[in-house]
């Protein structure tokens, strides 16, 4: 049996077994993976649904303004759950669970729909609640207005009351004055009566029995006039119809009649006195005539005849009658009484006198009576007047009192109303609070109760005797509030229903997702177990079978191999030392032995050839190294050539210009000399020459300066690389000093330069190099980066990078470098502004300094119009080994 | 799921819009124009057929229209519900051509299905006229005005010629008949509404929840508080500038003014004459004066002793200081009256010399009549301000003072206004303070309505119970002719008879004053037709 067959047997058995296991395992693994994926999806669904539910719960609890974010979260969560369910549905592994997945999908869709209605209802509710707030504040404003209005009305009431009070006072003044007038009038009337009565009884008695004097009357009249004046002025003040109450005239009229009466009384008195005298005279005459006169004085007269005496005696008898008649003023009506007396001549004269005085007394009496009548009329006019005033004022007084009573009643009622209005506001506030609580806990029944209470409040307000306009507004505010609340209550009810169904759906969803997850996990676990079992059993069988076969085959193979090995080892030292056994065997060992024999011989031959070849190669390598050095040198020379060419070109331009200027000057000088020699040098010519010479001199200076600068720069590039000395320094202060030293340049251009560097970076190297680098960069920015007048911001930032390296970033915010030019900025003589006098060496110098002197790297990046950034990385400690690192840099750019 | 979010934001936006709308709503609500009219009392009814009181008329006028209308100057205009009318040569047949498309109001109970037609006119007459009409006995069933104006005997027939033509035939010519048609008791009611209520057995609602064609419809009535009206959108003359009309019932004259000043009401009825000066000074208020075409009087019950004796009536007339009374009670708002009709009215007999104030003569007449010891009488006075009498109580008190001086003692009595009106027409009282404002500008409306023999009955307007054949002859003759000069002659003679017989003590003819706030526009003090049409209010 050939080894191949044997090995095939030995290897084949476990391979077969392994293959079977692998196929089964592979299948199972694939399935397991799918199942596991499904489990993961189901888990995600579970978590998403939970998160969505949490968002929904949050949605209800946060302030209305924050709800949108919760709604978004709900949407995203439910979206992802839906996506996961779709994925789950697509996943083949879910075939057995498709029904459940589809149900879950349907429930989720319903859930999301409900949430949308929920959001709509909540939004409607929120707006209803906001409405309620609005109406409530309207209501408060209205009750405030009601109070203000009431207050104004109260003030007005007070005004009306004050005015009514004033009118009452005025009325009372008038009434009092009228009473006084009437009293004064009555007093005067009484005095008059007494005065007149006194005519009969001799003296007028005034109260205490004191006889009345003229002064008493004056006082009484003054009082009458005074009270009339007062009444008149009170009427003037208070009554527009004052003309209808002529108190003063009446009083004056009455006063006048009193005067008239007094005059009449006086006259009457005089007449009576005269009458009495005449009567006495008459009686005396009669008695004298009768001779009875006892008086001596009468006696001479008694010389009358007897007849006369008898007649006189008769007349004496009539004397009492005559006296009575005279006193009553009726003497002339009884002529027969005095007939006897008239018969007596001696009596004729006294009798005539008697008649005369009696007539006078009668006239005086009549005058008195007329005066009395006039007085009575005047008095009754006053009486009528005061009666009229009293009637008008008393009824007016009552009317005003009624008005006052009504005003006070109104004021009280108004205050009650105000109180009630206030109560309405309080009740409304309380209802508002209750409503807010009910809405917060979504208690629709409580909201219904509050709606009912608001209805009761409406009724209360409707019954209030408040201003109808305000009442309407208050009613509509309460009604609107109530309607909003009713809407809210309906919304709450709907919300609660939605919440219940949503909770149910969410529960179902979560449960389904959890079950799916569990089922998938179980399945995956089951597959895993099966796989393990297959692996263990298959491996055991394969191991046992393979092991047995291997042991037998190994023995038959190992022996010839060992032998061959020994021989090979022996021949290794000298391949040509001897033959190999068993080359004649027919199996693989024979072939092997033959091959080994051939091999060993071949090796022996080739070793000799190889030694010769190595010697040749060594020589060729030596040649190669020399060639390489030559090539490098040549390249260097080429570069230098390019450099020199560039320098030459750059310098040539200014020098050429200078030369041209100098030549021109020379010509002009010659012309000038000629003119001067010929003495025809005009002043204007000289001025022109001077101008030209000035200009040429300026040109020369400018161009030569430029050439000098170029040379200087070139020196820097080429020769100045060793300038400065190496030392240990702190980076930050150094950079700051540098920035300061550069400040004339950037400050003049209006830019700012900021240094941003940590305090602790210490450099051991050439500070002069850094200075050159940064100076060049800054000058570069100032020259190129900005338009005229633009103010740039330059930044030098440095940071340690690890223990040994420093990163220095220089940036500006200027126009940047065009992408096409970005790769060439470090090339020597590359410039975009040659016309403006740039040499194109600045960045090249920088590059060389960074790479050769700092042993670092420089990179540039830029965006047009965003500025440029140079990033320089270099070791903190300069060492010559750094150069090797740098030498490996293939190109000046690092992108 | 972008869609629902969009919808959500949409609904949020709608919510915001609603909120915004609500925020601007109070402004809109304020923009509603409401006019508050402070009146003096509760209406007795919302049907002027039952009550002749000015308060009722005021409350009813905005709700209804009449076939013809009375202008502010008392002239009849054909601008009412009748587009035109014709009168036959003999003055007996009146044909009224009704306007088309005149809408009735609707209320909670009833929505009209048709515009005004002849049935409504017929219903208005027949309810008051025919005792067997299904509505005749609904409510108080008094119809005093209809009877006191003599319509039951005047009307011969009211017929419907077609839907929009009504023919009224009179028994005899009656000059003031057209004027009667302009009066509130003949404002046109809805027959359809009446039938509707009849079918549902709710006839009593007819007068409580009135349906008319007027510029305003009734919204609510709260006794002692307010009557609320709203502009009727379908008013045939066009909608009113006002949105709401509110009668704030404020019996107290001082409180009314207080409310007017504070802006709680815009128009105030009957201001206190004593306050007119102050009102005039107030820059926020405006006074509208108008000859009241009214008379205030004290009716003397001519059927009750001792007032049945003309000497006693004359003595009472002589004993009262009318001038002082009018001055005190009316201030500048009235003139002493001497005739039963106001001075501005045609046929006013100015040649009559009023009885003087002469208590002595009064006393003499009383002694002559055998009442030297005097006697006691009742005097009833109205409890509320009337246009013709601002303060009945004060007038009564002054009359009492005057009469006491001639030996007549008075007992003052009153009642709530509604009861007062009812009681004083029963004929039990000795003397009654009362007054009358002409509804139609015709002397007939005073002389016949208030003093004819037919009105001497319980509930009748002839409170003096005075039935004088000579007077009756004059006023009846004046009624049947339309020759104004002849009518004038009759009425002048009637006034002479009145002057001699003294059934009343005429007190005063007053100026009607209405005070309103400055922001009230286009208000005219039309004593015949206070329906607030055209009245507007400027936002303050």
TrEMBL record, chain A:
One of its GO terms (cellular component) is membrane. The chain crosses the membrane at residues 7-30. Its main location: membrane. It holds the Pfam family HATPase_c. Residues 607-637 form a coiled coil. It catalyses: ATP + protein L-histidine = ADP + protein N-phospho-L-histidine. The keyword Kinase applies. Gene3D superfamilies: 1.10.287.130, 6.10.340.10, Histidine kinase-like ATPase, C-terminal domain. Residues 555-608 form the HAMP domain. Its EC number is 2.7.13.3. GO terms for molecular function: phosphorelay sensor kinase activity. The keyword Manganese does not apply. It is found in: Membrane. Residues 646-878 form the Histidine kinase domain. Keywords: Coiled coil, Kinase, Membrane, Phosphoprotein, Transferase, Transmembrane, Transmembrane helix. This is histidine kinase.
UniProtKB/TrEMBL annotation, chain B:
Residues 1-31 form the signal peptide. One of its GO terms (cellular component) is ATP-binding cassette (ABC) transporter complex. GO terms for biological process: dipeptide transport. One of its GO terms (molecular function) is peptide transmembrane transporter activity. It is found in: Periplasm. CDD domains: PBP2_DppA_like. Pfam families: SBP_bac_5. Gene3D superfamilies: Dipeptide-binding Protein, Domain 1, Dipeptide-binding Protein, Domain 3, Periplasmic binding protein-like II. PROSITE patterns: SBP_BACTERIAL_5. Keywords: Signal. Residues 80-454 form the Solute-binding protein family domain. SUPFAM superfamilies: Periplasmic binding protein-like II (SSF53850). Belongs to the bacterial solute-binding protein 5 family. This is ABC transporter substrate-binding protein. It comes from Azospirillum palustre. The lineage of its organism: Bacteria, Pseudomonadati, Pseudomonadota, Alphaproteobacteria, Rhodospirillales.
